[in-house]
Amino acid sequence: MAIILNLETATTNCSVSVGENGNILALKEDNTPDYSHSEQLHVFIKNALDTASLSFSDLDAISVSKGPGSYTGLRIGVSAAKGLCFALDIPLISIATLESMAHQARMESFDFIIPVLDARRMEVYSAVFDANFNQIRETKAEIITESSFAEYVKTGKTLLLGPGAKKCDEVLSHANLVFMDSIIPSAKDMNKLSFAKYQKSVFEDVAYFEPYYLKDFIIQGKAT
């Protein structure tokens, strides 16, 4: 048996879940327009544990969404996860933000699933997954043009989901394309992924783990 605390702070959604063997026991989240992770995250962690009738000592691991996403949001989530892992002496698991988003595409069958997070201007963070949720194209930041994702769209039914989908909908048009901009990263979708990694002992080095920012120049810009 494994009880895992999952933290998702890559976007405006401050989200915490507790899972047991991949099944969700409790979820606490709030998607407000302004980032409120620094005020809400630790409160949500306590609330989720209380809802599941658990304490920190019951946890077997901490899972955190590693990005890409908001620089500040990722820093808050990873810092909280690492602090708890150090204090409780339990493993740290990282989950790719776009991968957990892809797993929300359960209602229909698609040949390709492309989770997209809004970046700057006409840019998005994206990755491409097949119908079995295998990642078939690397995660990258890209500017949306009329030819974006053309090799997939021309081949089969393609779902673009996530906060960046609305931006894509303004530029892309094809019969094979379905847009779903209501999907946001959530800790509820991390439970099965984190448990699978726990079973295989795929853990991060707590001392050296850093979020996957993807665009280093944004970090440098904030420092100037």
Structure description:
The protein is an alpha/beta fold and 224 residues long. Helix content is 29%, strand content 29%. It is built from 7 helices and 10 strands. It has helices at 37-51, 71-88, 97-102, 150-153, 165-169, 191-199, 216-223; strands spanning 3-8, 13-20, 23-31, 61-65, 92-95, 112-118, 123-130, 135-143, 158-161, 177-180. The strands form 2 sheets. The protein has a 5-stranded mixed sheet with strand order 3-2-1-4-5, sandwiched between helices. It has a 5-stranded mixed sheet with strand order 8-7-6-9-10. A hairpin with a 4-residue loop joins strand 7 (123-130) and strand 8 (135-143). Helix 1 (37-51) packs across helix 2. The longest helix has 18 residues, at 71-88.
Give a quick precis of the structure.
The protein has 224 residues and is α/β, with parallel strands linked by helices. It is 29% helix and 29% strand.
> Poorly predicted ranges (pLDDT <50, ≥5 residues)?
217-224
Number of strands: 10
Helix proportion: 25-40%
Number of helices: 7
Strands in their spatial order, largest beta sheet: 3-2-1-4-5
Give the DSSP E fraction (strand runs of 2 or more residues): 25-35%
- Structural class comes to alpha/beta
